[in-house]
Structures are given as C-alpha cells and as structure tokens.
Design goal:
- The protein is α+β, with helices and mostly antiparallel strands.
- It has one domain (2-175): OB fold (Dihydrolipoamide Acetyltransferase, E2P) (Beta Barrel).
- It contains 3 helices and 9 strands, in the order ααβββββββββα.
- The chain has helices at residues 2-17, 33-39, 162-175, and strands at 42-55, 61-74, 80-86, 88-90, 93-95, 108-113, 132-138, 143-148, 160-161.
- The strands form 2 sheets. A 7-stranded antiparallel sheet has the order 3-2-1-6-7-8-9. Strands 4-5 form a two-stranded antiparallel sheet.
- Strand 2 (61-74) and strand 3 form a beta hairpin.
- Helix 2 packs across helix 3 (162-175).
C-alpha cells in the first residue's frame, strides 16, 4: 500500500509542477499547447488496438496499450508500439490515478507523451489528461474533430477542428 500511495503522490506532484493557468494560446483544457509540445518526447496520433491491465512484480497495476501509430509528429516511433501507463484493474484490485486518461480499444487519440521512465517503462501523457486529445468524426457536419480528454467531473469537451489543431501543433513543434 505504501508504494501505491508514494506513486500517486509522485504523479500528482509531477502534474501539479507542470500545471499553469490557461491563456489565449492554450488548449481547451489544461496546459498551453507550447508547454505540451516542449515537454513531450513523442507526439503521435494513434489508434488503440489492445488494452491489457497487468499487475507488476511490486504489486502495482499498469495498463498496457498496443497502438497503431497513424501520424508520428515528434520523436522516432514504430508503426505499432506499446504504451504503458499506471493504473487499471486486475483481479478485483484497482489503481486509479486522478487525471490519467482512460483509452478504449478502437479510439483514436493525439497523444503528447513523456519520455519513457527508466524505472517503470511508463510513458505518461504530459499533464495527464491535458496531453490526450480524442480524434472523432463530427457526424452531423461530416468532418474530423479533436476533443480534449473527457474531464473526470463529467463536463462535456468542446470539439475543435482537427486540421486547425494539427496545424497549431506542427507550428509549435517547428518553433521548439
């Protein structure tokens, strides 16, 4: 139990340290786009192919996502990669990391991922849910849109244009 409390405290501290107030050039939720880009080792659009929750040797729980890399934007990336994040549920035991996005099979996401932890092998979205954007089709308008990760308080996330958001991301990558 101590290890999980320490892990949660560490993750919350890291998220708090990287938090900054919203401003005009910010994403709709969380960290400004320039901070997401600078702090991400990898930026990629992915499709979730597989999701497995596993118990680590130390008793911690992680979720392993097998993803197809649809659009690598920053950092060298294979076409299929495994991304491990803390949290999940195994054998009636669960670990919830507040703010960690919950990715589901078949979904597409634009992820701003941290460097892989040497100790755990985890790649965590920068700013947790701030570094995860769902790619959806706007059925009523026949276009692709981006939605920030669904806030845990249940508020809806406003859709923005995929093309314009992608252009903003590419501009920030070029500047950094």
């Amino acid at each position: 139990m101590k290890a999980r409390i320490s892990l949660a405290a560490l993750l919350m501290g890291a998220a708090a340290a990287s938090w900054s107030p919203l401003r005009a050039s910010s994403t709709l939720e969380g960290l400004p786009l320039d901070r997401l880009v600078i702090n991400a080792e990898r930026i990629c659009e992915v499709e979730i192919l597989e999701r497995r929750c596993v118990m680590r040797e130390n008793g911690g729980i992680e979720t392993r996502y097998l993803v197809s890399t649809l659009l690598p934007l920053k950092g060298a990336q294979p076409s299929v990669q495994e991304i491990c994040m803390p949290g999940g549920e195994v054998a009636d035991r669960g670990l919830i990391v507040p703010g960690m996005p919950d990715l589901q099979i078949g979904e597409r996401h634009l992820l701003f991922l941290s460097a892989e932890s040497v100790e755990t092998g985890w790649r965590i979205p920068v700013g947790l849910e701030s570094g995860c954007f769902r790619v959806d089709s706007d059925k009523g308008k026949g276009r692709v849109v981006i939605r920030p990760a669904m806030p845990q308080d249940g508020r809806g996330a406003e859709a923005i244009s995929y093309d314009s958001f992608l252009a903003r991301v590419q501009d920030e990558i070029w500047r950094s």
